[in-house]
Amino acid sequence: MAINRRKFVQTAASGAALAQGAFAQSPSKTPSPNDRIQIGCIGFGIMGQGDVRTEAAIPGVEIVAVADVYDGRLTAARERYGDHVFTTRDYRELLARPDVDAVIIATPDHWHARIASDAMLAGKDVYCQKPMVQKVDDGHLVIDTWKKTNRILQVGSQRVSSILYAKAKELIKSGAIGEVHMIEAFWNRNSPLGAWQYTIPPDASPQTIDWDRFLGAAPKVPFEPVRLFRWRNYRDYGTGIAGDLFVHQFSGIHFIMDSLGPQRVCATGGTYFWKDGRDVPDLMLGLYDYPATDAHPGFQISLRVNFEAGGAGGAESQGFRFIGTDGILNLSVGNALTLSKRPRQTEPGSTAETFSKATAQKILEEYRRKYPPHEPGFTPLTEETYPLPRGYSEQVAHHQNFINAVRARKPVVEDPVFGLRAAGPALLSNISYFEQRMVEWDPVNMRIKS
Ligand SMILES: NC(=O)c1ccc[n+]([C@@H]2O[C@H](COP(=O)([O-])OP(=O)(O)OC[C@H]3O[C@@H](n4cnc5c(N)ncnc54)[C@H](O)[C@@H]3O)[C@@H](O)[C@H]2O)c1
């Protein structure tokens, strides 16, 4: 592969410019006391703890309350943030507190819609983890409550706040790769934690866990800690690969392409490797047909996530390819954006030599009259790379976007309508997989058509 080195060096420099933009994420002013924001976290597990760490590092933001159904996580909250932090098993007690301005919701998926709605009705702004909802209808409930209460709600697919995504959007909009009719996204993993085999603490018991509060509206089943600590493996609480990971890919594609969503959804997959009792696939592929809109001429996408990908790692682990009529944009998540172009051939070529000698000669003479021989016949590939600046965090940028919106009462980058447009096709992928059929979606009104 020929790489145009001059271009590469040039654009490594533009990566530095990108870096300066990145640090616009640090707030420039000291917040006044009025800017002080007190947050509560509901669901203090892996992501809840990550979200609190990020948000509490923003000047003027403080964690004051945590709700979780497992006592060990409440103890962990007090260990990390002090005994003054209010802790409870019942999130409604947290929502009732006037000292909580905004909440992070990082529970299993089956609780998102209910807690987000309760939080907005209690007057709180909400940072709700993805997927926004476990069921499409719940998405409309969240949107209606959001409109009625006039609260801020940011969905937690943090990558849409990445400067790489913004750059990809700008390049595609400017026509840098021509018209885009095909997009691929992939996510390869090859580890137990990557396949959701999380640690089950030895003190898990009906005494340390509020089992009924974990189950919520899910079917009543006897106490079984694996269902709580590895909830993603069960359809009753999670949304499988599609809701957990396709949703990030949909969010990225919708943001970059200014798209509302697909009209047809088809998914396949299987549980091939992690036969650990899970009732969801460990490998999934999806195909989606996006209709033409004012923003783009329509395109096809393919998504694939594989939890048994031997050798997965580095740029191979996660990315997108936007394939345009004039070039390809490779987005290696958390790493770099690369724009590759090879000018289209200036002559059509000919298969005349497969015909009889006389016919071939006649065609080639005509061909050369029309296309005289010229140099060079080879068109080189050029690549421009925009590396992500060292230390840049889209997680910080996304939470900063939320906190800025809470302070200024302005829109966030990923509101509930965006959230349902990303979650909807992900949830339809599960319908397609489990019912073995194509599913139709109305991307404007966000409803299942058939
Ligand atoms: N944006 C991202 O990149 C990202 C990454 C990981 C997880 N997530 C999302 O974050 C959410 C949490 O995932 P996780 O990996 O942290 O799971 P986790 O199991 O580590 O944490 C979930 C926590 O919620 C608690 N919980 C369960 N039911 C509850 C209830 N009714 N009230 C209060 N707490 C309750 C559990 O005890 C647990 O501590 C999921 O929706 C997941 O999709 C997002």
Describe the overall structure.
This protein is α/β, with parallel strands linked by helices and about 450 residues long. The protein contains 13 helices and 16 strands. A ten-stranded mixed beta sheet has the order 14-13-12-11-7-10-9-8-15-16. Strands 3-2-1-4-5-6 form a six-stranded parallel beta sheet, sandwiched between helices. A hairpin with a 3-residue loop joins strand 12 and strand 13 (about 335-340). Helix 7 (about 165-175) packs across helix 10 (about 240-255) and helix 10 (about 240-255) crosses helix 13. The longest helix is centred in the last third of the chain and has 20 residues, at about 415-435. It is elongated and about 90 Å long. Residues about 1-35 have low confidence and may be disordered. It binds nicotinamide-adenine-dinucleotide. Nicotinamide-adenine-dinucleotide binds next to helix 2 and helix 8.
| Helix-residue proportion | 25-40%
Distance between the termini: 46 Å
The secondary-structure class comes to alpha/beta
The major β-sheet equals: 10 strands, mixed
Residue runs with pLDDT of under 50 for 5 or more positions: 1-33
Mean pLDDT metric: 91
- Kindly estimate the percentage of residues that lie in beta strands according to DSSP: 15-25%
Number of helices: 13
- Radius of gyration, in angstroms, nearest whole number: 25 Å
Bound small molecules, by name, code or SMILES, are: nicotinamide-adenine-dinucleotide
Taken in chain order, the helices and strands follow as HEHEHEHEHEHEHEHHHEEEEEEHEHHEE
Number of strands: 16
Net shape: elongated
